[in-house]
Structures are given as structure tokens and as C-alpha cells.
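Z., the sequence and structure:
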Amino acid sequence: MANLLELSQVSKVYSRGLINTTSVTALEPISLSLREDAPTILTIAGESGSGKTTLAMLLLGFIKPTSGKIIYRGKDISTLSGEDRLTFRREVQAVFQDPFAVFNPFYTVDHLLTVPIRRFQLARTKSQGRDKMEEALTAVGLRPEDILGRFPHQLSGGQRQRINVARALLLKPRLLVADEPVSMVDASLRATILETLRNLNRDHGVSIIYITHDLTTAFHVAKSIIVLYRGAVMEAGAQV
């Protein structure tokens, strides 16, 4: 069986200037793979400037590597188009650092959850869509009756971040890229969100790439860890 995800000597170099061009290596060549038949949680850890977010942007296909290939289910993501690209966008979801930035303050939570349902035609009727929203919210430990119909400012940071996870879960992803998902959440809520991620892996078979600067949360959530420093892999291994 093909790997779910495979990085083969992927690097990223940024250049600036038209005459006296200078280059900055954000990510040294890195290789890794995630098996499709064994959902896991892989942590990418490192301090600010270590290349973590660059790696996340590469994995999501938002930027292209300078060298190497990123293969998702046997296909190079840089060459995807049409239905293949739409499938990739549905199956590879992201949860970002700032739970506030995703929300438009003029819309209720329902709007955030309705957009992917409509975009990917996940429900034929409003009733089916409502059922899917309630199912996703329940899966991340939220009570739909307490969440739906409310505006972002009426919710806590922890609730907003779990709604972001619920939005991703709606699409039944195979891979979730979580970039510093608890760094802007109160310490008392971090364990709850981390446990939500572990439940997604265990109960829904979602592989997770968890990106963080905090080795404590990395140890709590990960099955294996890669430590980056100035764009290069310093350490890698599995938890025992």
C-alpha cells in the first residue's frame, strides 16, 4: 500500500533582491513518510525560525519546494489539478495558531461550518447539513446547542479552536496539519484541545502532523518527534 504522505529531500530557499540577490534557506532537505494504513501523530518541534511553519505551508501545498517532492497518496501535490486537487484540499486539512483569525465577527459559527459543507457538497439538504455540524461539534467535545447560532465574541478561545478542528473534521480528512494549535489558548484549555487531537487520531483514523515550539505538549501528544533547528533536522525518533 502506498504511503499516505511522503517527503523526499524537500527543501525551501527564499531569494530576495533583483541585482544583488541574497538567499535564505528556510528548510534544509528533509525526508519523512506516513503510512496510510497506520494513522499516527507526528510532532514537528523547534524554536521560532526553525522552519516549522515553512514545512506546514509546503505540506498544505500553499508554497512549492525549492527541491524534492511531496507525494500524497502516490501523487506529486505540485502537479495536482481538477478533481485530484479538490480531493487533496478536502482530505488534507489545517488548524492554525490563531483561533480568532478564522472567524468573521459578523457571522455566526453556523456560517463557518456551512461553507465547507456547501463547497464540497457534503449534504443535500439543510437538515443533513445541520446533522453533520452537530456530529462534528460533538466529536470535539462541544455541545451543539451551546455553540450554533452564537457569534465568535461570545465564545472562549478554547471553544473557537475546537470549532476549527470540527470544521476540518466535517470533511473527514485523512491528514490534519496542526500548526501551533494551542499556543494562543489558556493553559487550562491546552490539555482539552490536545486530547481532542488524540481522539481524532484514535477514533476517526486521522493522521496528524502537530507543529509546536513546546516540547512538553510535543511529548504529550506525539507518537514520534522530529526536532528542527535553523531549518535542519537535529533529532528524530519514536516515543517508547
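The longest strand covers residues 3-16. The mean pLDDT is 87.

Let me know what you think.
H.
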